[in-house]
């Protein structure tokens, strides 16, 4: 048993005195710091209550194409002119101790910290109304300790220099309510078509719930979530004694009547493109809605106004006004991924749904270039032959089968080359290639090309039955053109804040992803769809527009019962067109099946009209030889068709075609026949 001696008692007392002394020193130290901060905040005087600034969107040439929130929907009203229901609902849900604290609710902070610690994640907020007001007025929204410290200082300044009613009034007049609307007066007019003084209890509770997450709790975005949050607020008001049980029941059953939803962003120029810019800011750059709408950003985009105008004009003029068919269009610079023009539908006012970036549709045969790139990269060549005839394919260990067909049931019933297969869009050849490579190969190739919508591991995906987005597959074609460097659809080149400081700049470095030689061989084969010399058992798929093209293009069309596609590129530009019906209606009219190709061909010609004509340049490691497309062998002078075709070096054919070689007797006979024909030509007027 320990014996407590006088010496040990003295040591213990010294320790207690030391701890007490140090604690007092720390208390004095921190009290001095806090007092100094408070006095400095008071000495600084009332902070300037800055007005949110408009965010401007610019095209690639520097001209303004859009402005977010131009000040027309911001109203400042006195606290006495705001419904008591709004004041109570806001305080109840945002800061119940608002009138009792000095800017910080330490009890709430401790509770939130404990909740976060238990969940090991950020699950509960503790910001007071004053803190939120300070953050919205003066600060950027990055999550740093410096920003937190500045937020605390501005909170103290507000509390030291303004009354609680003034702070609440300022908060309610500047908080974001979604859809470009700031302040309770603007929100009341926007959602309910009335003044904030006229808001009912149910309406006030609905609006009070929106600032927590306008993209989640706006009744225009998600009515169900909005109603759930409204109920939480009303029950909290009842619990805090602001309303009675009878008022609670009445407000919960109140039928809210909303005004017609309006778009608060100026969208006269390229509205679908501007929507894509907004999505990029929020989803990829993590710039929140409030910063976008209020902090005076300068957003510099990739939009080419001339190309956009050409595209919009062609879509408008090419499609029958009486038709309900929809369209999606996108043009990209294959060197950078910069989106030059974009159309998400025929009428933004009727349907803001973006069919270029949001819709997932079956791409049909436009998926084949990705398949054939994989084939070239795994031992195939443009001369590789396979039999084109009706075929049933077994898969899944023989448990399932798949029987594709060619367009109009046309088959060669003979061997055809890969060069022919892509130009004629032979489905049997495509599925055979898919099965020979292993179906997982196309899945991985899609990922390599940046398709975010994963390709299904089944035989029919060789024919494009696995849905993709137009923007994704057009970007993939851009990677073929640029020799295999990774690009991503890019809408924004730079973002500056109100002071001119660059807060984002697009990356111009492009990583090599694909095999450069295989990408070029695939690209050059894709020029075949416009080469009518490759007509065989059926016509090349681009025969209807081939005569209208004046420069080298590579491309691929695609057709399903509900979708029509045309994607292609020159060395300077890649563009894709989709046409179809939104709700699964089939495309039955021949005219409607031709829209995509016609729009694409006219756009490419007009968009590049003032650009120099460029050819696809073969990279080192490829060899170009003349072959007979039908046999894949080196062509002779006697072959009816001789086409320059590129191969990965070392895989080019070495055997000459002998099918069309003529003997000396054949040549003499042919010469005499020609002379006879020429003689008869003199007397054609007899006929």
Automatic annotation (TrEMBL):
Alphabetical list of InterPro entries matching this protein: Beta-lactam/transpept-like, Glyco_trans_51, Glycosyltr_51/Transpeptidase, Lysozyme-like_dom_sf, PBP_transglycosylase, PCN-bd_Tpept
Entries under Pfam families matching the protein: Transgly (PF00912), Transpeptidase (PF00905)
UniProt xrefs under Gene3D superfamilies: Biosynthetic peptidoglycan transglycosylase-like (1.10.3810.10), DD-peptidase/beta-lactamase superfamily (3.40.710.10)
E.C. designation(s): 2.4.-.-
Lineage: Bacteria, Bacillati, Bacillota, Bacilli, Bacillales
Chain segments annotated as transmembrane: 21-43
Key word NADP present: no
NCBIfam families per UniProt: PBP_1a_fam
Domain spans labelled Penicillin-binding protein transpeptidase: 328-572
Localization, UniProt: Cell membrane
UniProt domain Glycosyl transferase family: residue ranges: 62-237
Annotated protein name in UniProt: Transglycosylase domain-containing protein
Keyword vocabulary terms for this entry: Carboxypeptidase, Cell membrane, Cell shape, Cell wall biogenesis/degradation, Glycosyltransferase, Hydrolase, Membrane, Multifunctional enzyme, Peptidoglycan synthesis, Protease, Transferase, Transmembrane, Transmembrane helix
Main location: membrane
Catalyzed reaction equations: Preferential cleavage: (Ac)2-L-Lys-D-Ala-|-D-Ala. Also transpeptidation of peptidyl-alanyl moieties that are N-acyl substituents of D-alanine; [GlcNAc-(1->4)-Mur2Ac(oyl-L-Ala-gamma-D-Glu-L-Lys-D-Ala-D-Ala)](n)-di-trans,octa-cis-undecaprenyl diphosphate + beta-D-GlcNAc-(1->4)-Mur2Ac(oyl-L-Ala-gamma-D-Glu-L-Lys-D-Ala-D-Ala)-di-trans,octa-cis-undecaprenyl diphosphate = [GlcNAc-(1->4)-Mur2Ac(oyl-L-Ala-gamma-D-Glu-L-Lys-D-Ala-D-Ala)](n+1)-di-trans,octa-cis-undecaprenyl diphosphate + di-trans,octa-cis-undecaprenyl diphosphate + H(+)
Entry keyword annotation includes Hydrolase: yes
Source taxon at top rank: Bacteria
Organism annotation: Metabacillus rhizosphaerae
UniProt enzyme class: transferase
Gene Ontology MF terms: glycosyltransferase activity
């Amino acid at each position: 048993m320990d014996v407590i001696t006088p010496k040990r008692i003295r040591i213990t007392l010294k320790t207690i005195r030391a701890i007490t002394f140090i604690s007092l020193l720390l208390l004095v130290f921190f009290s001095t710091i806090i007092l100094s901060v408070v006095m400095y905040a008071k000495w600084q005087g009332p902070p300037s209550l800055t007005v949110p600034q408009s965010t401007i969107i610019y095209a690639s040439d520097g001209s303004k194409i859009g402005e977010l929130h131009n000040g027309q929907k911001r109203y400042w009203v006195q606290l006495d002119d705001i419904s008591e229901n709004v004041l109570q609902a806001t305080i109840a849900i945002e800061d119940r101790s608002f009138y009792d604290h000095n800017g910080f609710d330490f009890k709430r902070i401790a509770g939130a910290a404990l909740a976060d610690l238990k969940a090991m994640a950020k699950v509960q907020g503790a910001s007071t109304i004053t803190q939120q007001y300070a953050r919205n007025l003066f600060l950027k929204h990055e999550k740093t300790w410096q920003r937190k410290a500045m937020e605390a200082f501005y909170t103290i300044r507000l509390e030291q220099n303004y009354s609680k009613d003034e702070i609440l009034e300022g908060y309610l007049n500047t908080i974001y309510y979604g859809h470009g609307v700031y302040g309770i007066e603007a929100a009341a007019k926007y959602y309910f078509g009335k003044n904030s003084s006229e808001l009912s209890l149910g309406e006030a509770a609905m609006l009070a719930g929106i600032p927590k997450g306008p993209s989640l709790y706006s009744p225009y975005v998600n009515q169900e979530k909005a109603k759930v949050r409204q109920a939480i607020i009303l029950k909290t008001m009842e619990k805090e004694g602001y309303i009675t049980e009878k008022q609670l029941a009445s407000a919960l059953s109140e039928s809210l009547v909303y005004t017609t939803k309006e778009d608060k962003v100026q969208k006269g120029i390229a509205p679908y493109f501007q929507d894509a810019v907004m999505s990029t800011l929020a989803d990829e750059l993590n710039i929140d809605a409030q910063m976008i709408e209020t902090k005076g950003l300068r957003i510099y985009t990739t939009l080419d106004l001339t190309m956009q105008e050409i595209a919009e004009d062609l879509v408008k003029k090419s499609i029958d006004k009486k038709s309900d068919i929809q369209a999606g269009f996108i043009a990209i610079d294959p060197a950078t991924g910069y989106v030059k023009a974009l159309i998400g539908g025929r009428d933004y006012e009727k349907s803001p749904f973006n069919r270029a970036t949001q819709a997932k549709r079956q791409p049909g045969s436009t998926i084949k270039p990705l398949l054939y790139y994989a084939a070239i990269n795994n031992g195939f060549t443009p001369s590789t032959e396979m039999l084109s005839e009706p075929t049933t394919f077994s898969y899944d260990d023989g448990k399932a089968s798949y029987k594709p067909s060619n367009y109009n049931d046309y088959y060669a019933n003979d061997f055809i080359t890969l060069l022919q297969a892509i130009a004629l869009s032979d489905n049997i050849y495509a599925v055979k290639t898919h099965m020979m490579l292993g179906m997982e190969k196309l899945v991985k190739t899609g990922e390599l090309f940046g398709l975010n919508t994963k390709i299904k591991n089944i035989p029919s995906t060789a024919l494009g039955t696995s849905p993709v987005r137009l923007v994704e597959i057009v970007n993939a074609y851009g990677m073929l053109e640029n020799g295999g460097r990774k690009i991503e659809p890019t809408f924004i080149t730079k973002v500056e804040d109100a002071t001119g400081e660059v807060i984002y700049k697009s990356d111009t470095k492009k990583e090599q992803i694909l095999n450069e030689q295989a990408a070029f061989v695939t690209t050059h084969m894709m020029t075949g769809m416009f080469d009518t010399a490759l007509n065989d058992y059926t016509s090349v798929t681009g025969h209807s527009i081939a005569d209208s093209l004046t420069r080298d293009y590579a491309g691929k069309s695609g057709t399903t019962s509900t979708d029509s596609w045309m994607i292609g590129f020159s060395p300077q530009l890649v563009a894709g067109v989709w046409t179809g019906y939104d709700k699964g209606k089939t495309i039955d009219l021949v005219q409607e099946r031709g829209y995509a190709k016609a729009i694409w061909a006219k756009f490419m010609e007009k968009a590049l009209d003032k650009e120099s004509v460029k050819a696809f340049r073969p990279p080192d490691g490829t060899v170009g030889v003349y072959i007979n497309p039908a046999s894949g062998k080196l062509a002779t002078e006697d072959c009816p068709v001789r086409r320059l075709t590129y191969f990965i070096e070392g895989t080019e054919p070495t055997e000459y075609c002998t099918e069309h070689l003529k003997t000396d007797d054949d040549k003499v006979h042919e010469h005499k026949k020609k002379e006879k024909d020429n003689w008869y030509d003199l007397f054609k007027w007899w006929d």
